[in-house]
Amino acid sequence: MPTDSRLSRMLHVLIHMDRHGGPLTSETIAGMLGTNPVVVRRTMSGLKAAGYVASEKGHGGGWTVARPLDQITLLDIHEAVGSPKLFAIGLADDDPACLIERAVNAAMTETLSDAERMLRARLSEVTVASVAPDVEQFDAYLAAHTVRT
After folding, report:
1. How many CA atoms lie within 13 Å of 104's alpha carbon, on the beta-carbon side?
2. Which Pfam families match (predicted)?
3. To the nearest whole percent, how much of the chain has pLDDT over 70?
4. DSSP string covering the chain, please?
5. pLDDT tens digit sequence for 65-110
């Protein structure tokens, strides 16, 4: 089963946008992520609807961060990208009448629900700003890598 990387990709984008200090186009962001600008616009639309980014059309336009990163949590971004499943573990349904399968599924459902509650709680405690590299590290990175606008 493939993993969903939208959360980590959007955290990456938000930190770049914040440090960049100006608008970034969908094309520029797509280049950073190795994807299509249409995918960027579709994903960013959820962040825009939640008030985390803004966009300007036309020459000199692009995407900008609309709120300070210390006011945005990882859970906020997870929800803004559509709340993808947190776990790839699934239940068996080969024989729903089997008492053992039903017991296993009940235990797994409870365990996964508990784990999801704990993970969501932790995601709500971590801000995007707290995962960003410090300014000196980022400046050194920018000196070594060109971010095209």
Report:
1. 13
2. Rrf2 (PF02082)
3. 95
4. -----HHHHHHHHHHHHHHH-S-B-HHHHHHHHTS-HHHHHHHHHHHHHTTSEEEE-STT-EEEE-S-GGG-BHHHHHHHTT---S-------S-TT-HHHHHHHHHHHHHHHHHHHHHHHHHHH-BHHHHSPPHHHHHHHHHHS----
5. 999 999 999 999 999 999 998 988 889 989 989 999 999 999 999 9
Q: Which domains does the chain have, with CATH numbers?
A: 6-144 (1.10.10.10)
Q: Do 53 and 65 contact (CB within 8 A), yes or no? A: yes
Please check whether residue 147 is in contact with residue 20, taking contact to mean a CB–CB distance below 8 angstroms.
Answer: yes
> Which residue do the tokens 């980022």 mark?
138
Q: What is the pLDDT of residues 106-132, one digit of tens each?
A: 999 999 999 999 999 999 999 999 998
User: How far does Cα 35 stand from its chain's mean position?
Assistant: 15
The tokens 């020459």 sit on which residue? Answer: 59
